[in-house]
Specification:
Number of domains: 2
Mean pLDDT: 86
Order of helices and strands: EEHHEEEEHHEEHHEEH
CATH topology of the largest domain: Lambda Exonuclease, Chain A
Low-confidence stretches: none
Distance between the termini: 42 Å
Shape: extended
Radius of gyration: 26 Å
Number of helices: 7
Strand order of the largest sheet: 1-2-4-3
Number of strands: 10
Helix content: 25-40%
Oligomer: single chain
Length: 303
């Protein structure tokens, strides 16, 4: 495992990424034991890449306000459990004049407004991350800066004590290391698995109780767009079938045509498949040869 994993073994030492330290135990356990994450969604990767660009802009703007900032993206760590667990990350800046660390986040407009109103309540993982940076550097304060990616608005506030205590972090890391050493998988915190990199480990989801995210504008915005796009796709597929029939009726089966702008061909195509019925008649029970594939289904329905 490499540093790209949320948690990994470095010799006998368990290393947990500060940005992932607030994840559920099962996700951290899966990463540390070498399980393969699902491929990251393209838009998530794009968001992360854009985040690095916004960080540089935020640092420049804070310096213009008079803040003294050094050591961008410096690796920091602290040994949470001696000889057993380290939390490590890349701090966005150090502020030696203020005995502080700098943490920067860039957000969509909806998330920005939500964070502005409710702070770490909407993003508990952010609280874990900045707390670990403060402990790693022995900083007494942190400057938390967050930028609206849609309009460039930048706000910031001071944190005068880590929002997550050392005791809470230590207990979680001790539990994680024990599960790893025992070779057993811990329970999953279903309320903390939004965009989990190991969705295939959440088979309890069908029986899980609904978690109330009322007031979470970001999640509501995603669900709304998902419903709208799903409806658009159905309408477009229906229209595509209508247009296909129109093209065939005008051009004719097995024919080709040229218009002012396009070449149109209507040809017969075939595909080869296997008949499960015939295979069963010839070879009997097919169950030993069946391969089960799992996939993640997303259903969004109106309340």
């Amino acid at each position: 495992m490499t540093e790209s994993a949320n948690a990994y073994m470095e010799g006998d030492m368990l290393v947990v990424r500060a940005s992932s330290s607030g994840d559920c135990l099962r996700a951290l356990w899966a990463a540390a034991t070498g399980m393969q994450e699902v491929a990251k969604r393209d838009w998530l990767a794009q968001t992360a890449m854009e985040g690095h660009l916004h960080e540089a802009d935020v640092r420049d703007r804070l310096r213009e306000e008079g803040f003294y900032i050094v050591e961008a993206q410096q690796v920091v760590e602290w040994e949470v459990v001696p000889g057993k667990v380290i939390v490590r990350g890349h701090v966005d800046g150090l502020m030696p004049d203020d005995d502080a660390v700098l943490e920067i986040k860039s957000m969509s407009d909806a998330v920005f407004k939500e964070f502005e109103a409710r702070g770490f309540e909407t993003k508990p993982g952010y609280a874990w991350q900045v707390s670990n940076y403060m402990y790693a550097e022995g900083a007494t304060k942190a400057l938390y800066a967050y930028k609206n990616r849609n309009n460039g608005q930048l706000d910031h506030f001071w944190i005068t004590s880590p929002p997550i205590s050392k005791g809470v972090i230590t207990r979680k890391m001790v539990d994680l290391r024990r599960w790893i050493d025992r070779g057993e998988m811990p329970d999953c915190d279903l309320a903390n698995r939004f965009f989990c990199p190991f969705p295939f480990l959440h088979w309890e989801e069908g029986d899980a109780e609904e978690v109330d995210y009322s007031g979470n504008a970001a999640l509501d915005e995603l669900a709304t767009e998902y419903v709208e796009i799903t409806a658009d796709i159905k309408d477009l597929e229906l229209r595509k079938k209508e247009l296909r029939s129109g093209l065939v009726s005008l051009v004719g089966h097995g024919a080709r045509a040229i218009t002012d702008s396009y070449r149109i061909g209507v040809t017969m195509k075939g595909r080869t498949g296997l008949s499960k019925k015939l295979l069963k008649e010839a070879f009997g029970d097919l169950e030993p040869y069946e391969v089960k594939t799992e996939y993640e289904e997303v259903r969004v329905t109106k309340r």
